[in-house]
Amino acid sequence: MREEEPRSRIPQLRLDELLAELQARIDVARGTRDRVHSLLEAVLSVGRELELTQVLRRIVEAAAVLADAKYAALGIIGPDGDTLSQFITVGLSEEEIARIGPYPTGKGLLGELIRHPHPLRLEDLKQHPASTGCPAHHPEMRTFLGLPVRVRDEVFGNIYLTDKRGAAGFDDDDESVIATLAVAAGVAIDNARLYEEAQRRQRWLTATAEINRRLLSGSSRTQVVELIAQRACDISGAELADVLTTLPGGAGLRVELALGGDVNGRVGVDVPLDGTISGAACATGFPVTSPDLTGDPRYPGCVPRFAGTGPAVAVPLGRAEGHTEGVLLLVRGSGAAEFTEREIDPLLGFADQAALALELAERRRDAEQLAVLEDRDRIARDLHDLAIQRLFATGMTLQSASRFIDHPGASDRVLRAVGDLDETIKIIRSTIFGLRVREAGAGQGLRARAVHVVEEAQAALGFAPRLSMEGLLDTDVPPAVADHLVAVLGEALSNAARHARADRVEVTLQAAGGHVALTVQDDGVGIPAQGRRSGLRNLEERARALGGTLAVTAPPAGGTVLNWTAPLGH
């Protein structure tokens, strides 16, 4: 009986082994089933998103879960094809990321997948020849798995996984699962790109329609130009925008309007055609991009005006018959993504429509100016043919009647009235002369220049300043004095727009008593006691150079009153 007992245990042991093996196979099958289920969930999760940023984030998170990796990242290859333009990580806290410093650009082991877009699996990433080590404060990493993500046969980026949890390293199953996820990720990225492009084109079309509506509603050219720049910034994600128009004779470009950054340092600046991306876009008639405007060695002329900025694109405005009307320059912040072809194509269409809008505004302004000139011509004829003749006849009648007046006081009054009529005739003739000069096309009289400066200030102030003019401004004020006065008016209105926070601005321009006086009054916050006064010093120097004066006062009711005078005989 004792010999038969060991024999009876042998089948039992074999049965236990078979059951254990069966249980192991069941666990493997269950694990495979669960992993396939997780993979399907990840594919659905990635494909469910339409926003590209969310899609990329979901891809990294799903890869980390499927491969049970402690750290995961997705590196997006830049337009140059050699570096990473974006790096999305999972597993690192915000504090750890801040301590590590800037994201990698594709050197060392990360660049190996860029140069050779094939799966790469390592037991110890430090042993690979391309490994250059980790930067300071970077967590230690050992096991590694990297696979490319392709979008329509183009390598979009790479998935990087490190430190598999609870195992010696990544295996064939991990590589197979992540490869499947990479295929689904490529489809999801392509869909997100198409959606993003459709949304962007819709926004450009909406902006174009808005510009056309503003033009048809009677908005000024300045308002339309500002709207063009603002919508271009909003849609493209740019921080700065300049609208440049061509100078006569192809001498270069001039910044007509600027948004963002140092606006005062850019508006009115002349930009050469050589040495700037704006000039290159104007000369070639095609968009010109720069990955970093500040450090771009091709265009050193841009550095002083755009220090600390990033990627930029210059788009020509109006390219009909080889002629460019101007340039739209958009600049993103430092470290931002570069402008891509997908962004530039709809932007180019928007620029063409914007150029048509500007041309329409120019033609309408010419038509309005022509109507004004025709009206001035009519007024001049009426004053000459009717008013002056009747005043002259009235003066002659009074002068002849004075001989029949015996009372000395009455006779003196009549003669003074005759003198007043004579002065009135002179004033009317001077007014007619000013109207004739404008009609002849000069358009450079002091009155016209003052009106133009006030109209230009309307966009910055947000309302139309009140303008009052008296005296023979076009005939009595010398050109040199007029130039200084126009500059002072522009600076005063600019200061009011930047600092006053006013709701009302009144401008008075008067030529009388051998002096010309400019008064600019606002109801704003006034000038702080410790505020900057460099602009006021410039105005004072202009007055002193002409033998005039500058006075800035604060009336009891609040606001600021600026009074600038200069002699007419200087």
UniProtKB/TrEMBL annotation:
Residues 51-199, 215-368 form the GAF domain. The keyword Transferase applies. Gene3D superfamilies: 1.20.5.1930, 3.30.450.40, Histidine kinase-like ATPase, C-terminal domain (3.30.565.10). The keyword Nucleus does not apply. Pfam families: GAF_2, HATPase_c, HisKA_3. Keywords: Kinase, Transferase, Two-component regulatory system. Residues 480-570 form the Histidine kinase/HSP90-like ATPase domain. This is GAF domain-containing protein. It comes from Kitasatospora phosalacinea. The lineage of its organism: Bacteria, Bacillati, Actinomycetota, Actinomycetes, Kitasatosporales.
